[in-house]
Amino acid sequence: MNLLKTLAIAAAGLVLSLGAVHAETQQNAKDISYSFEWPFGHFDREQLQRGYKVYKEVCSNCHSMQYMSFRNLSQKGGPEFTDEQVKALAATFTVKDGPNDQGEMFDRPGLPSDHFPSPFPNEQASRAANNGAYPPDLSLITKFRPGWYGTINQLINGIGGPQYVYSVLTGFVPDEQLPADVLKEKPEGKYFNPYFANGHWIGMPPPLSDDAVTYDDGTKATVDQMARDVSAFLAWTAEPKMEERKRLGFMVMVFLGILALLLYLVKKKVWADVH
Amino acid sequence: MSTAEHAETNRRDFLYIATGSVAAVGAALTAWPFINQMNPDASVLAMASVEIDLAPIAEGQQITIKWRGNPVFIRHRLAAEIEAANKVALADLKDPLARNANLPDSDPATDKNRVVGDKEQFLVMMGVCTHLGCVPIGNEGEFAVVEGNEKHGGWFCPCHGSQYDTAGRIRKGPAPENLHIPQYAYLSDTKIRIG
Amino acid sequence: MSGHASNYEPKSAFAKWFHERLPIMDMVQGQALDFPTPKNLNYWWTFGGILAVMLVVQIITGVVLAMHYTPHVSMAFQSVEGIMRDVNSGWLIRYLHSNGASMFFIAVYIHMFRGMYYGSYKAPREVLWMIGVLIYLVMMATAFMGYVLPWGQMSFWGAKVITNLFSAIPWVGDSITTLLWGGYSVDNPTLNRFFSLHYLLPFVLAGLVVLHIWALHVVGNNNPTGVSVKSPQDTIPFSPYYTVKDAFAIVVFFMFYAAWVFFSPNYLGHAINYQEANPLVTPAHIVPEWYYLPFYAILRAIPDKLGGVIAMFGSILILFALPWLDTSKVRSGTYRPIFKQFFWLFAINCVILGFAGSGAPDNYFLSHEPADPDKWALTYKLVGQICTAYYFLHFLVILPLLGLLETPKPLPASISDAVLAKSHPSTAYVPAE
């Protein structure tokens, strides 16, 4: 926690030192590294399984994940839970189904083929329950929220989506550490987070605290660990076919390389008699 | 042609053939995803199996539910229907096979083999005529059990006149096979899951 | 097409029977296989073939995507995610299509700049060039409507901003915008008609490409010397020489294409487009796809709404007049020492225009910081204005004057001579004129 505090204060200090003009500019995300970066990177199955647990026990109370189904959790290239595990964890969710013979909607335990249910029936209900804020759907968040900008920067480092999620989760600055002139601008029910994309005041209270979840594999659930795991998990939900894509891509590049070489030799042969 | 020229020609031909072959293999491999995309996608394949409570279906009553986009007939048969079906000699059947997904393909089309377990009163089958896919009409046709003005069991396909008996077996008309029995299992005494 | 007699001789009885009824093999032989082509075409000339292949790739992947896509505001975004997650190889086909659009534009820009450098628009190729500009315009319309279909935030707001351009037209502007929308805003009717047109226009493009190639085959290829073909010695048959050269170039281009598709498939798009369209919330920066950025910069450079729209469309339409704006009799930039420098200056200017269109107008150029409004600052907007002025200066002043003032270098007597001089530098040749 000490490290976290230092980081948060350093970050807050850095932002404030940039001056009033830039107060609304989003702070670049912390560039932590993940196992799935670069052309040969893979997801870490255990990390994804831990990340799922954080999503389920913490995030899913307010955030939907509507494009994901439970069955995805067992598909190749993801957390790769077994089919039995997926059945069991799907059943821990309540899904609305129907209409039944009486024409009424009814609740039943989730099945692997179900999509993740949303915690709120619609946006209005969600805002009403969250002090006017609308917790975004998390299926694609690491693809639509860049952690940093710049034409060359993003080409080399990616858009930093997972890093954005990690930085927001670990970047809260408690009120007592805020300078007085910042604190006096604090809107009701908002929290200071320099990494947040829409201004520095975020409607989400700090969602993680140490040991908020108990990992099945015995990993210690520090805030930093949980933030890393859940951001990796959300990187997978945004791009579930990433491993297949990279693997196929490697084969395609090798194939095209061979074909290009052969065609180059043929071209040289064919053109040898042209002067 | 000198030996050197000959070797040169061979090498050139080999290069051309190798390049052509690699390109052809590449084209064939590229074609596959564009064909395969038309196969059922992951969400279709994962489509939920359906669970049905049989208790509310009274004797002599039939319900139709939708499974994988097709109608499934669930009929609570009268004793007379079962009896009529059992009386038919296998030799009289147009299609002698059970067509039951829960049994081996070669099993004969006895009435017993048209249901699952010993619950002969519940006939569960695809409501899809094996001729060209229309939905047959229930309690109709020459093979229904007739009691006074009422017909019980038996199916008649309005499209091209195929007639099925009280066990859903094809008896007359252009359809080649008995109505198919989908995969299903009893979860409890009165509850089944199809798929 | 033109008068190149084909040597096609039907070999079998069936071929003869068929030939008498539809002489298509004769045309293939004469126009594709045996077509006399200058023997000195360099690799910049392979981009025509690359573009034809890219059009085919886009049509095939597009037809396949349309099998899974639902053009309705409540389901469009979801159906695209279904393609990405559930359809067999759907992610591959969609990434091929979305990155394919960028590759198409990279190739078309190289193709256009090649034409500008080597003077391929000059007599007798004016019509060939103008059909090309028309193809480019239809491409832009097609790509714009395609970008709307995933119904993300940038799809929606891009559509809203671009269709609003038409409201700048005096008197009828608002009616035209309402007509385009089919409502009071970009909504379901808009999405539906964009889908319909996005499916239609590629086939219009294919038709225009046929005209483009027809026009090419009437006048023949330009070449790096710009000197016209004078004798059969200057040419070689298209096949096998250019078929194999083009095939090699296409495969190399595919490697570049595949690198994007498989290893950075979203870089060329906008992150925010993975958030579903919300008609109530505008994203902080609305930026078009990279291939429109120079024109977007020109649009923003003019402070007046109508003026900006006129400048933007003018910057493309001016290309139709290029054959007459360039007054020089020499085609190839290779023999025009001063033009050559202005050509590169123009190319760089277009790239800077692209950057100028990418940022918030009032931020410091190439930064994300807002400029101090009270002090002079090099903002995106200012850079855009300077480069816009130079863009039009190039076409309207520099090109006409250069033709009159510049002294070109001596031209080779023929293509053959130029090729010989290159392969045997010691062989001196006598320059023409």
Please provide a written account of the structure.
The complex is a heterotrimer of chains A (275), B (195) and C (433). In chain A, 42% of the residues lie in helices and 4% in strands. Chain A is mainly α. In chain A, the strands form two sheets. In chain A, strands 1-2 form a two-stranded antiparallel ribbon. Chain A has helices at 2-17, 45-57, 83-91, 123-129, 141-144, 151-157, 161-170, 180-183, 223-238, 242-271; strands spanning 94-97, 106-109, 191-192, 201-202. Residues 1-23 of chain A have low confidence and may be disordered. Chain B is of the alpha+beta class. Chain B has helices spanning 3-36, 42-45, 79-87, and strands spanning 50-53, 62-67, 70-76, 122-126, 137-138, 145-147, 150-152, 155-156, 163-164, 170-172, 184-188, 191-194. The radius of gyration of chain B is 27 Å and the shape is elongated. The mean pLDDT of chain C is 92. A two-stranded antiparallel sheet of chain C has the order 1-2. The longest helix of chain C has 32 residues, at 188-219. Chain C folds into three domains: 1-34, no CATH class; 44-278, Up-down Bundle (Cytochrome Bc1 Complex, Chain C); 289-331 and 337-407, Helix Hairpins. The interface between A and C is large, with 43 and 43 residues.
Strands, helices and their partners?
The complex is a heterotrimer of chains A (275), B (195) and C (433).
Chain A: H1 2-17, H2 45-57, H3 83-91, E1 94-97, E2 106-109, H4 123-129, H5 141-144, H6 151-157, H7 161-170, H8 180-183, E3 191-192, E4 201-202, H9 223-238, H10 242-271
Antiparallel strand pairs in A: 1-2, 3-4
Helix pairs in contact in A: 2-9, 7-9
Chain B: H1 3-36, H2 42-45, E1 50-53, E2 62-67, E3 70-76, H3 79-87, E4 122-126, E5 137-138, E6 145-147, E7 150-152, E8 155-156, E9 163-164, E10 170-172, E11 184-188, E12 191-194
Chain C: H1 13-21, H2 24-33, E1 36-38, H3 47-66, H4 76-85, H5 90-117, H6 126-148, H7 153-164, H8 173-181, H9 188-219, E2 235-237, H10 238-263, H11 293-301, H12 305-317, H13 322-325, H14 337-356, H15 380-405, H16 415-423
Antiparallel strand pairs in C: 1-2
Helix pairs in contact in C: 3-5, 3-9, 3-10, 4-5, 5-6, 5-10, 6-7, 6-9, 11-12, 11-14, 11-15, 14-15
**Largest sheet strand order of chain A:** 1-2
Residues in β-strands, percent of chain A: under 5%
Rg of chain A, please?
23 Å
The secondary-structure class of chain A comes to mainly alpha
- Provide a count of the helices of chain B: 3
Low-confidence stretches of chain A: 1-23
Mean pLDDT of chain B comes to 89
The helix/strand series of chain A, from N terminus to C terminus, equals: HHHEEHHHHHEEHH
Shape of chain A: globular
Strand order of the largest sheet of chain B: 5-8-9-10
Q: SSE order of chain B, as H and E?
A: HHEEEHEEEEEEEEE
